[in-house]
């Protein structure tokens, strides 16, 4: 079992920054995360390297943290790998509330996170203007092969 | 009244002699009220410049008061009159006759100061004896008084009343929950005076600390509005009988009204405090039974008579006879204040109704704020609700379900569609005094 921290966020620009900065200040490494959104609010779920320290850092920054147990399941990295795991869960009549992957990037020491933006062209321009590298599909695909 | 019943602590049915006025035949009570009213208006006119000026401005003199309804011609007194004349401007007795001063907390600036002569204190004690007797207390009861002692009228008001009743008083005053519980258990208190919300807190702690409260029989709860649902919860969780009492410093303190065993409205001690119900907007006196703002006139106060004081509490007068036999009229439980009311799409709404809806959904009251806006000529109401640890879930569908249930509950309780917005914990502004619940952004 893994301990997952989740935070309630209002659905407006800038809300993700505070928790990530709080974790950064405490030196807590984010292993993976997922952001679920509705038109009303967002829900940030985090798996960090030291959940207890992460929770304290977030709470000290004034956030209310929900702690839940999540289950990391190994999946064969080939076509049908995930389907096989889901078939096993289904046969055991276990429903999936939500899921999100751990991600590895194409270059050593780099992770890849996929973002979804409201206005992709504007976001792309802004990101590139700040010298950030945007991966293209072929790189990620190449890495996987 | 059953004549010949002398000992007030006789088996059920008897009452303390101080409670006799509770049972006065109505013609006698009305006569007494008129007589006292004439006296108090004359005293206020003669001794308090503010009252005299206001009456003269309207061409009124105390002699024009021939019948009780004539009171409706006199001007109202409001809380700001007490602030504007701070500290002693409304006193009708010289300081050498004043034996006690109390004051409000003054959350919105200067406090208001109230004064008592020796006779006023005797009246106060008498109405508190009648309050406790109505709640079924008598000699032999051990009353733990956890209302705050000091400038606040609650503590000392209840203290002297319970003592005069012949009960044993434990003056614990407010706060220090664990000590309160130790005393409750070890001294075997049979009755407790405090706010209803503090009592719930005590019950919760008592359970955690395994404190035995089985000897506690009666709760005398006041100083904040509470609902019938809360009474049910208190009575079920603790096994006691919970009674609502009413009062305000401007009039005397606690002891203006109290529930009896029927738990069906609060009897006003009408021989000392004369009630009217008015339309809070027009100031017009409403017919009996209508809901409106309670206006009180003191009938016997010497040091600080109050003429037509607007309490801002919203209630209705009940004149149907009560099962307990008291002839005193009752007021319905007070859950709202007229100064909190706002009107949206022509409907009168009180924050307390929003609270009721929020409580309905989760059982605990989250921090919330009501924002009123107008878009394209239509009023919109938004209720911002903080996601507290109890409300928070890491599952979207639970949060969405909560959101839907909150909207449905508001619609159900108010009959109005409101937009509910879940906001981050601790993101709504806190105020040091009473919470400011409504932000009205509509331009008139």
UniProtKB/TrEMBL annotation, chain A:
Gene3D superfamilies: VC0802-like. Residues 4-78 form the ACT domain. InterPro entries: ACT-like_dom_sf, ACT_dom, ACT_dom_pair. This is Amino acid-binding protein. It comes from Anaeromyxobacter diazotrophicus.
TrEMBL record, chain B:
The keyword Ligase applies. It is an enzyme of class 6 (ligase). Residues 101-296 form the AMP-dependent synthetase/ligase domain. It catalyses: 2-phenylacetate + ATP + CoA = phenylacetyl-CoA + AMP + diphosphate. CDD domains: PaaK. Its EC number is 6.2.1.30. One of its GO terms (biological process) is phenylacetate catabolic process. Catalyzes the activation of phenylacetic acid (PA) to phenylacetyl-CoA (PA-CoA). Belongs to the phenylacetyl-CoA ligase family. This is Phenylacetate-coenzyme A ligase.
């Amino acid at each position: 079992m893994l301990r997952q921290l989740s935070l309630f966020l209002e659905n407006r620009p800038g809300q993700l920054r505070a928790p990530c900065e709080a974790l950064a200040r405490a030196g807590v490494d984010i292993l993976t995360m997922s952001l679920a959104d509705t038109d009303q609010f967002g829900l940030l779920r985090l798996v960090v390297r030291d959940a207890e320290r992460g929770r304290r850092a977030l709470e000290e920054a004034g956030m209310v943290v929900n702690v839940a147990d999540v289950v990391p399941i190994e999946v064969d990295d080939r076509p049908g790998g995930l389907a096989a795991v889901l078939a096993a869960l289904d046969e055991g009549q276990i429903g999936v509330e939500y899921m999100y992957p751990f991600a590895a990037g194409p270059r050593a020491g780099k992770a890849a996170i996929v973002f979804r933006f409201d206005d992709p062209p504007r976001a792309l321009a802004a990101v590139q203007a700040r010298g950030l590298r945007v991966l293209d599909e072929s790189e990620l695909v190449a890495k996987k092969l | 009244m059953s004549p010949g019943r002398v000992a007030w602590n006789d088996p059920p049915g008897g009452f303390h002699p101080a409670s006799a006025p509770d049972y006065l035949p109505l013609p006698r009570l009305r006569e007494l009220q008129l007589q006292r009213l004439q006296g108090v208006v004359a005293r206020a006119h003669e001794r308090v410049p503010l009252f005299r000026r206001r009456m003269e401005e309207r061409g009124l003199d105390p002699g024009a008061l021939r019948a009780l309804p004539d009171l409706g011609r006199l001007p109202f007194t409001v809380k700001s009159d007490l602030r504007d004349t701070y500290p002693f401007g409304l006193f009708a007795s010289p300081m050498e006759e004043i034996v006690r001063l109390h004051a409000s907390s003054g959350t919105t600036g200067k406090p208001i100061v109230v004064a008592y002569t020796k006779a006023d204190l005797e009246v106060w004690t008498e109405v508190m004896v009648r309050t406790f007797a109505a709640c079924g207390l008598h000699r032999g009861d051990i009353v733990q008084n956890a209302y705050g002692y000091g400038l606040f009228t609650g503590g000392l008001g209840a203290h002297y009343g319970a003592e005069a009743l012949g009960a044993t008083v434990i003056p614990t005053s407010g706060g220090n929950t664990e000590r309160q519980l130790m005393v409750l258990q070890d001294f075997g208190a049979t009755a407790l005076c405090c706010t209803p919300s503090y009592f719930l807190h005590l019950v919760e702690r008592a359970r955690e600390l395994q404190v035995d409260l089985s000897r506690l029989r009666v709760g005398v709860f006041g100083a904040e509005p509470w609902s019938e649902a809360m009474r049910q919860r208190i009575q079920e969780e603790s096994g006691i009988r919970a009674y609502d009492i009413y009062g305000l410093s401007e009039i005397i303190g606690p002891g203006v009204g109290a529930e009896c065993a029927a738990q069906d409205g609060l009897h006003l001690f009408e021989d000392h405090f004369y009630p009217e119900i008015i339309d809070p907007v027009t100031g017009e006196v409403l017919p009996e039974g209508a809901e409106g703002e309670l206006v009180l006139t003191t009938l016997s106060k010497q040091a600080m008579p109050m003429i037509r004081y607007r309490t801002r509490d919203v209630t209705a007068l009940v004149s149907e006879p009560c099962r307990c036999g008291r002839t005193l009229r009752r007021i319905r439980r007070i859950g709202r204040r007229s100064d909190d009311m706002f009107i949206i799409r022509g409907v009168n709404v009180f924050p307390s109704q929003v609270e009721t809806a929020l409580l309905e959904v989760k059982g605990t009251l989250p921090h919330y704020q009501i924002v009123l806006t107008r878009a394209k000529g239509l009023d919109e109401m938004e209720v911002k609700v903080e996601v507290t640890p109890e409300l928070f879930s890491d599952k979207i569908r639970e949060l969405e379900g909560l959101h839907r249930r909150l909207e449905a509950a508001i619609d159900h309780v108010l009959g109005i569609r409101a937009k509910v917005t879940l906001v981050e914990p601790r993101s709504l502004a806190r105020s040091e005094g009473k919470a400011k619940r409504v932000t009205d952004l509509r331009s008139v």
